[in-house]
Amino acid sequence: MNVLGISGSMRRNGNTAMLVAAILDRVREAGIETEYLTLADMDIQPCTGCEACKDAKWCVLEDDDWGAVAQKMIDCEVLVIGAPTYYYDINGQTKNLIDRTYSLYHDRRLSGRGGVAVTVCADRGCERSLETLEGFLNTHGFSYLGYVCGRGYNPGDVQKDKWAMKKASAVANAIVRYLRPED
Ligand SMILES: Cc1cc2nc3c(=O)[nH]c(=O)nc-3n(C[C@H](O)[C@H](O)[C@H](O)COP(=O)(O)O)c2cc1C
Which residues form the NADPH-dependent FMN reductase-like domain (predicted)? Predict the structure, then answer.
């Protein structure tokens, strides 16, 4: 069993990272293996729309970090994908990652996994970020296990958002139930 958490924020220790980590911590407490990735130091180039992936079944841009992240997404059983809200939507780095999973869509290579969406905003715009993340998960055929929308501006602020931290625990419990329905 493996739960992969990805923070798409360019802030290595920002609010998105904290919310994703809070979910993974709780899942790990239940004895389930987790892995965490931050896109903060990664080079994830945008999709060029070349459509070559329809034949290649993989993104043909090979000089960046996308392939390693994509392979981990393929290998996981549950994906927790988190992104900060920029201009009422997810940030560019996360969108680049998602757009290039088009190459995995042709053969539905991500379908059948569990999925969780996480986003953080300072004040407004979480709703559209969530829709974007849900659009990604639904299009690929993930089983949607829940979401967390946190509030925070400076790194660490989200830990004061009691509702979000509570929701992170609830979502983690949903992941555990999904992976261990017999418990
Ligand atoms: C370029 C940029 C755009 C932002 N746009 C919004 C926005 O539309 N709505 C909002 O509430 N906060 C916005 N914020 C604030 C971030 O969502 C907020 O600081 C969040 O906690 C960042 O998460 P992180 O620490 O995981 O990077 C923006 C921040 C930046 C840098």
Answer: 1-144
Ligand 1 pocket at CB < 6 A: 9, 11, 14-16, 84-88, 120-125, 152-153, 155
3-state secondary structure of 45: coil
Protein residue closest via CA to atom 28 of ligand 1: 86
- For a ligand 1 pocket test, name from 16, 86, 151 the mutation site with the most ligand atoms within 8 angstroms of its C-beta: 86
CATH of the domain at 39: 3.40.50.360
In angstroms, rounded to a whole number, what is the distance separating the alpha carbons of residues 23 and 8?
Answer: 15
Enclosing domain of residue 34:
3-179
Compute, in angstroms, the gap from residue 70 CA to the centroid of ligand 1. Answer: 25
Which residues share a beta bridge with 127?
A: none
Count of domains for the chain: 1
Is residue 36 within 8 Å of 21, Cβ to Cβ? yes
| pLDDT tens, position by position, 69-128 | 999 999 999 999 999 999 999 999 999 999 999 999 999 999 999 999 999 999 999 999
